[in-house]
Input
Amino acid sequence: MDGGGAGSDVSEPRIAVLSRSWAEAQRSESAEAVRSIAGALSRLAPVDVFVPGEGATFGDGAFDVTPIGGAHAPRARYGAVVVEAGRRGDGELARSAGSLAAGAPVLAVGGARFTVDGVLDVGPGDAGTGSWTVTGGGGGGGPAPAVHHVGLYARVHPDALSRRHYGLREIPDYLLVLGDRPGMPATPTPSDRTRWLLARFARQHVVVLEGGVARAWRSRSCVAQFDVHTRMDLWILMARARGVVDLLPGDVYARECVEALRFGVPIVVPGGSAADGLASAAGGMRFTSTAELLSCAEALGDPATRAALASSGREAADRWYGDPHAFVTRLAGPLGLAVPVDGGPR
Amino acid sequence: MTGPDGRDDKTLGAGGEVGAGGEIGAGGEVGAGGKPAETAATPAPRLLTHRADPLPLPPALHDAEVVASLHLRWAQLAAAGQGAPPLGAGDADDGPGVGRSGVRAKVRARVVAAARADAAADRGLIGDLIRAVDAVAARVDEVTARVGNLELLVQEVLDRSSEDLVRVQAALGGLDDRVRDEQA
Output
């Protein structure tokens, strides 16, 4: 491989994945999305992963990861390029994506803005299906950009449905609220919007999760507190909740909302967020004001409403985010890649 | 943990790890559009610093071991007292009024009579004390139950008034105004 994992032999199409989050924020939603895409694309062609910075190639799971800077700048051409650079964008990655693509499709993840011709934007936004979409291939005065419903693959552990979190103790039924203050350390005082929820539903248990600390509230007072260390802990909390209110969903694909729906738990999310389409299509409700938030949460108390949302939400989430094989097939289309009959190169 | 966009892990702490089944632990990058401004047109309700939900009531004092054992011990003592020979019974064949032993018997009889009177008074006092303990225990249990009911009532009043006040706020449009401020 010349300069980073890809050979100069163009007879075998290769795919380049350029990601800022891959190494710098491994636990971020962006990194999770890019890893899911890279995993799917690896069924279609060999994948080379590039990250910003300098240094030697290193292994990361099934992939070899190459710092794109310095002497390791890739010089190969690729059949498709995926680039994720965070919301602010990244000049180095954008330039590299352009040079690597050379006319090949470029998939931009997470709202990154690039000045590359033919770029395909992948991200949330479809209110009809709730699917992640790939948009592009049109524009420039021509026909409207095509929209491909590709979804994503978001793993959840089914055992979470049968487990009970130790911290819940005797709490039988609760509403799970995911906080909206990501930059703040865990504090005993919930945010304003959460406090409205706690006051409105004083007769119910409400578990507020923020900064890795879960606090169970009842009668406007904290009745239990425990740490949530792992994703499995979070899934167990989600799977047994009456509903999940995500006050600030992730902006890449609203990971927690997708996961809650895969457990059959309805979601309540802000309008205009990455989870808006998913909630509108099936399995959730959206709010644009605190009053609407309270109404949505109240609706979750109705068993019939909850059951209907749970059923349709789980179906949609499993369809678009729970089938890795279908994701591979759907992703191949917009990138113009063929789906191998035998399951692909890896 | 701060991500590349200056946003932190949303729900989990910094100690994310591999969960069961090989699932990668922790965190989502945080999302969408940043945190909405929280203007204070209608201040959010304040929370309580103490638990408002009643803790489980203690067990009834009347049935507690300390009171039950008092009754049991008293019953055992009473039974032993009734079965024991009367004081001075060993000297009965001495016969009254016979020499030195007759005098001794008279003295003994007076002592016995006095002791019996003291024992009866003691038993009466102990019985009264045990009945008093029973009464106090019953009253404590009653007060405990009333306090428990009061705690439940306070919680219910708190809960319902809290929910009603929020409903009123929403009906008056205070919450919507607040959000319009945010959106503006």
User: Anything to note?
Assistant: Chain A has a mean pLDDT of 82. The first strand of chain A starts at residue 15 and ends at 19. Residues 303-321 of chain A form the longest helix (19 residues). The CA atoms of residues 94 and 114 of chain A lie 6 Å apart.
